[in-house]
Please model this.
Amino acid sequence: MIHLEWNDRPTIKQVKCIHTDAKKFVVENVLTAGKTYNVKNETEEFYFVVDNTGQVGGFYKEYFEG
Model:
């Protein structure tokens, strides 16, 4: 249950959001293009970052560079 402690875990790295043009999901409400986000966990397909709401959310890596 690692997801219950993500906010308290150390940041793995930082990634920069390059776009919020999602085909299927609405991400412009929680991500800002050009802003750098702290990565708390990473999988093959997703970054789990602290988004604009202050919560950890999982987003496809295609929205970021880094």
Remarks:
- The chain has a mean pLDDT of 90.
- Strands lie at 13-17, 36-42, 46-50, 56-60, 64-65.
- The chain has no helices and five strands.
- The longest strand covers residues 36-42.
